[in-house]
């Protein structure tokens, strides 16, 4: 297992975001002043963190090209490419 | 790797403990100490659950019962009969001939753990009531705000309104104020004076009351207003919260006419008590009941046994009562599940002491539920176009029309007609509110059956088709 540096950056929609080691993608995005990183499937409304503990699936985001990551659970890693998720991303969930 | 044990047709574990919060940690430590081969499973990266959520190197300054957590964590890490599976998300528990198989995914890879008994210690999450604007980014659950602060070191916003009901609002607001955020107010929808009617329960739980008084004094120090019979009835903004409407409530939680006022804030933290995670007892056929706080809970006996064979339940899943009750119930479950699997005897005085403490904590919990009821006047805060189901974007009007126009008489039918609770969260967030809306639209109070209709989930966590198709036995390591 490699140890992440204490502080590093990843990108969100092309812009650099500072993160601390061990921090979730959602926490780093909120600390950077961002509020939302997904548009809903039906009405295209913005969503970000709601429950913060993996229950509600509101904070879904695309990381390194893969959609449907719960930003509140996934730890940020140096060099990650995080992008706003449009709708369901592409559906690979069984339920 | 082949071992002699892997070849035996027996479960690798005597006991699988599902959830590593206060109840699960306590259960696992008690079970291993009684000689049971135990596995402790949690979706989180480290033990502690929601209550003891922490960061690596956390000094525990913002936690209650931290020394108790450290002791349980130490004992659980050190015991040779106790294995850990962190980062394992449980999606199904299956009854087998030998006992149970717990199916999890870890980094998208499927795993299966076999055990003779299971202890369900899956905890709870914030109960939510919908209101206009609650889907705008910047409205968080109170638990999310607490998790961001305690688990990540990030205040959720700069100017924060804390609203809802229950004692949990106090530590959330206090933590934010101490972290330097401006808490524009704590808006408690209830009027928690019913507590005085339970002098015995209060006396037995003096430390908890002192805790509450400590929070209030911290809030005063930071000049945070604490208002009762008041709550946030709407959030405003388009892409992010820019303000909220706060109003006075009557005793049934209807808005007092003329009392609404705008407040300036960028964040709203809301919680109306807790919803226990009950999909596993439901999957295993345990009898459920509607508890004093209106939550669906698993029924247990004095040994923490659910009504389904070999299933023990501890902590919030059998009744919301806080971390101290959870630790006691976990210990009882661990001891009794061990006795059932390996016959290890327990000192009678220890059991008597645990049962006495459980009774005291339960009477305290019952008093709290009575002090913080959720009357159904909140339904009058909703417009027809207020979102109820956040996942499927179903409005209150659509839910009500499923009753008035389509003749649905229970939440399960409404779910099929209008899709609330059919999205990714599977009704975890909107289940309680939908059950209440449907019951009221049918002119009755919600029942355990109504709640069950929104809480039954054959698959507890979304998973990829690949994970579902693949095998994955984690018992021969």
From TrEMBL, chain A:
Keywords: Oxidoreductase. Signal peptide: none annotated. It comes from the Bacteria. Pfam families: Fer2_4. InterPro entries: 2Fe-2S-bd_N, 2Fe-2S_ferredoxin-like_sf. GO terms for molecular function: iron-sulfur cluster binding; oxidoreductase activity. This is Proline dehydrogenase. It comes from Streptomyces caeruleatus. The lineage of its organism: Bacteria, Bacillati, Actinomycetota, Actinomycetes, Kitasatosporales.
UniProtKB/TrEMBL annotation, chain B:
The keyword Oxidoreductase applies. Pfam families: Fer2_BFD (PF04324), Pyr_redox_2 (PF07992). One of its GO terms (molecular function) is oxidoreductase activity. Keywords: Oxidoreductase. Residues 13-318 form the FAD/NAD(P)-binding domain. CDD domains: GlpA-like_Fer2_BFD-like (cd19946). Residues 388-435 form the BFD-like [2Fe-2S]-binding domain. InterPro entries: BFD-like_2Fe2S-bd_dom, BFD-like_2Fe2S-bd_dom_sf, FAD/NAD-bd_sf, FAD/NAD-binding_dom, Metab_Enz_Cyan_OpOx_G3PDH, Opine_Oxase_asu/HCN_bsu. This is FAD/NAD(P)-binding oxidoreductase. The lineage of its organism: Bacteria, Bacillati, Actinomycetota, Actinomycetes, Kitasatosporales.
């Amino acid at each position: 297992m490699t140890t992440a540096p204490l502080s590093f950056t990843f990108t969100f929609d092309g812009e650099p975001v500072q993160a601390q080691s061990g921090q979730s993608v959602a926490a780093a995005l909120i600390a950077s002043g961002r509020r939302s990183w997904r548009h809903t499937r039906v009405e295209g409304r913005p969503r970000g963190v709601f429950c913060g503990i993996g229950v509600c699936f509101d904070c879904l985001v695309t990381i390194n090209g893969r959609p449907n990551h719960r930003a509140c659970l996934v730890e940020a890693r140096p060099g990650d490419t995080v992008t706003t998720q449009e709708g369901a991303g592409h559906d690979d969930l069984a339920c | 790797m082949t071992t002699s044990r892997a070849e035996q047709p027996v479960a690798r574990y005597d006991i699988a403990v599902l959830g590593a919060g206060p109840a699960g940690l306590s259960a696992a430590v008690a079970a291993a100490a009684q000689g049971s081969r135990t596995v402790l499973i949690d979706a989180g990266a480290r033990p502690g659950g929601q209550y003891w959520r922490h960061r690596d190197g956390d000094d525990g300054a913002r936690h209650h019962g931290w020394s108790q957590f450290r002791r349980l964590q130490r004992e659980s890490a050190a015991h040779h009969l106790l294995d850990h599976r962190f980062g394992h998300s449980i999606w199904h528990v299956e009854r087998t001939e030998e006992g149970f198989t717990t199916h999890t995914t870890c980094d998208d890879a499927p795993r299966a753990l076999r055990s003779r008994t299971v202890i369900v210690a899956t905890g709870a999450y914030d109960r939510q009531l919908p209101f206009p604007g609650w889907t705008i980014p910047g409205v968080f659950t109170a638990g999310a705000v607490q998790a961001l602060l305690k688990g990540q070191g990030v205040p959720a916003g700069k100017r924060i309104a804390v609203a809802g009901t229950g004692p949990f609002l106090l530590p959330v607001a206090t933590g934010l104020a101490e972290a330097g955020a401006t808490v524009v107010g704590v808006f408690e929808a209830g009027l928690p004076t019913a507590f005085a009617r339970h002098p015995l329960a209060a006396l037995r739980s003096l430390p908890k009351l002192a805790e509450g008084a400590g929070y209030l004094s911290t809030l005063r120090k930071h000049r945070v207003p604490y208002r009762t019979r008041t709550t946030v009835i709407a959030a405003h903004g388009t892409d992010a919260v820019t303000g909220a409407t706060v109003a006075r409530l009557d005793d049934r939680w209807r808005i007092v006419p003329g009392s609404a006022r705008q407040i300036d804030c960028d964040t709203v933290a809301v919680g109306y008590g807790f919803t226990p995670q009950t999909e596993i007892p439901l999957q295993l056929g345990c009898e459920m009941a509607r508890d004093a706080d209106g939550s669906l809970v698993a029924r247990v006996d004095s040994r923490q046994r659910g009504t389904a064979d070999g299933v023990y339940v501890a902590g919030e899943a059998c009744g919301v009562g806080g971390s101290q009750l959870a630790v006691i119930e976990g210990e009882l479950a661990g001891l009794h599940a061990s006795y059932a699997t390996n016959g290890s005897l327990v000192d009678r005085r220890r059991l008597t002491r645990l049962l006495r403490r459980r009774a005291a904590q339960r009477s305290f919990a019952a008093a709290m539920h009575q002090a913080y009821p959720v009357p159904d006047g909140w339904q009058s805060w909703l417009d027809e176009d207020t979102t109820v189901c956040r996942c499927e974007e179903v409005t209150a009007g659509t839910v009500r029309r499923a009753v008035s126009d389509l003749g649905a008489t229970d939440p399960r039918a409404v779910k099929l007609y209008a899709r609330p609770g059919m999205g990714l969260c599977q009704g975890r967030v909107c289940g309680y509110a939908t059950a209440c809306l449907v019951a009221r639209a049918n002119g009755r109070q919600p029942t355990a059956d109504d709640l069950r209709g929104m809480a039954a989930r054959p698959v507890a966590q979304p998973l990829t088709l690949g994970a579902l198709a693949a095998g994955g036995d984690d018992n021969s390591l």
